[in-house]
Automatic annotation (TrEMBL):
GO cellular component, one term: plasma membrane
Transmembrane segments: 20-42
Membrane topology: Multi-pass membrane protein
Protein name listed in UniProt: YbbM seven transmembrane helix protein
Protein's cellular compartments: Membrane
Similarity field: Belongs to the UPF0014 family.
Superkingdom of the source species: Bacteria
Keyword Transmembrane helix: yes
Organism listed in the record: Vibrio maritimus
Keywords, sorted A to Z: Membrane, Transmembrane, Transmembrane helix
Entry-linked Pfam families: UPF0014
């Protein structure tokens, strides 16, 4: 936003670009979280909801 203002753009236009960039970051972050959680649930739990990972035993 500062670069656009220093480059001669209108502050209103700079704010609009900044809001679009912030929304794009938020959307991609949300998609990443959903994909990550789905992978964890798919790989970490069976159909009945029990964890697939067995605890380690010392021995």
């Amino acid at each position: 936003m500062t670069g656009q203002i220093l480059g001669g753009a209108s502050p209103v236009v700079a704010v609009k670009y900044q809001l679009v960039i912030m929304m794009a970051i938020w959307v991609m972050m949300s998609i990443s979280i959903v994909v990550c959680l789905n992978l964890v649930v798919y790989r970490g739990f069976d159909a009945s909801g029990k964890p697939k990972i067995r605890p380690q035993t010392n021995g």
